[in-house]
Specification:
The chain is an alpha/beta fold. It folds into 2 domains: 71 residues, no CATH class; 236 residues, 3-Layer(aba) Sandwich (Rossmann fold), CATH 3.40.50.1820. 42% of the residues lie in helices and 16% in strands. It contains 11 helices and 10 strands. An 8-stranded mixed sheet has the order 1-2-6-3-7-8-9-10, sandwiched between helices. Strands 4-5 form a two-stranded antiparallel ribbon. A hairpin with a 5-residue loop joins strand 1 and strand 2. Helix 4 packs across helix 5.
């Protein structure tokens, strides 16, 4: 065998290895889109001296959801003002533990939503923290739809809260993170019963996928993510460019929405969130916050809960 044939053979072998690796990585991420790896709960509200109740309720399409209802403190002046907290993709009602293989691969950091809940509780708000469909202890309906179908979870949560005597039906707010922020924004187009909303780093799926792919895999991301998207579509999803948050938020009515976005977020971007704010009839922000990665934007609000308290005080008046 001459040198040319040997080189050609090794090139074919190397090409096959690279193609197999790309396909495996794409399949891994496609599977996480279709059915996220469930994180077990690692804490409860009573660890922070919050009285709570284990609850279940249906989304409007019947998916069973599990969560906690945390009534406001007995001496609260808020008169039934209650906030729905909506977590991000791959998280659960407590946030992100950042201990699984996806977290290790992507450089995820911990997100402690229970800490934020405690701050809001001390400020007098009641809270509903729940696991979204395909997450935590809630029911399944794959694949995920980047907030579009998940909005039915939020509408179901509102219906549940309206049946509780501790809740003022006209004083319900929502607070969403990442895909949970998308979920809240889609829900605003379906209901006028959310009086105010905070959206922390929502993202247009196509925009997010492109930036995430390049950040994680360099030039190979331009091959890996489209292949993962194709696998996602074969499982029942749609092309990512067809998930249009701007179209949804344009139908949000006069519900005030506060947008929060990290300046140096490598996966999302201020420009993307700015376009959402422009399309929103009654926006605040985006409030651009400092940070070095995607997770700094979430952490900023956890470290500065007074931002959420002040916004909901203004728009859920006594």
């Amino acid at each position: 065998m001459n040198i040319f044939r040997r080189v050609l053979r090794w090139l074919f072998i190397l090409g096959g290895i690279v193609a197999g690796l790309i396909t495996a990585i794409a399949a891994f991420f496609a599977q996480r889109l279709i059915q996220p790896l469930r994180q077990p709960l690692w804490g409860t509200p009573d660890q922070l001296d919050m009285t709570y109740e284990d609850v279940t309720f249906p989304a409007t399409d019947g998916v069973r959801l599990s969560g906690w209802f945390i009534p406001a403190p007995a001496n609260s002046p808020r008169k039934g003002a209650t906030l729905i907290m909506v977590h991000g993709w791959g998280w659960n009602r407590l946030g992100e533990a950042a201990t699984d293989v996806v977290a290790n691969m992507t450089g995820a950091s911990q997100v402690d939503l229970l800490r934020l809940a405690h701050s809001l509780y001390k400020d007098g708000f009641g809270l509903l923290m729940y696991d979204g469909r395909n997450h935590g202890e809630s029911g399944s309906q794959a694949p995920m739809q980047f907030g579009e179908t998940e909005a039915q979870d939020v509408v179901g949560a509102i219906a549940y809260l309206q049946g509780r005597p501790e809740v003022a039906a006209n004083r319900i707010g929502a607070l969403g993170f990442s895909a949970g922020a998308n979920t809240v924004l889609y829900a605003l187009a379906e209901t006028d019963e959310i009086q105010a909303a905070v959206a922390v780093q929502p993202t247009s799926p196509a925009h997010f996928a492109e930036r995430f792919g390049v950040h994680q895999f360099g030039f190979l991301g331009r091959v890996i993510l489209p292949l993962a998207e194709l696998m996602f579509q074969q499982a029942g999803g749609r092309p990512l460019k067809e998930y249009r948050l701007g179209t949804a938020v344009a139908q949000a009515g006069q519900t005030p929405v506060l947008y929060i976005q990290g300046i140096d977020d490598p996966w999302g971007s201020p420009e993307d969130v700015q376009q959402m704010a422009i399309a929103t009839p009654n926006p605040s922000g985006p409030l651009l916050v400092p940070g070095t990665d995607r997770y700094s934007g979430y952490q900023y609000l956890i470290d500065n809960p007074a931002i959420a308290t002040a916004f909901f005080e203004q728009h859920l008046p006594e």
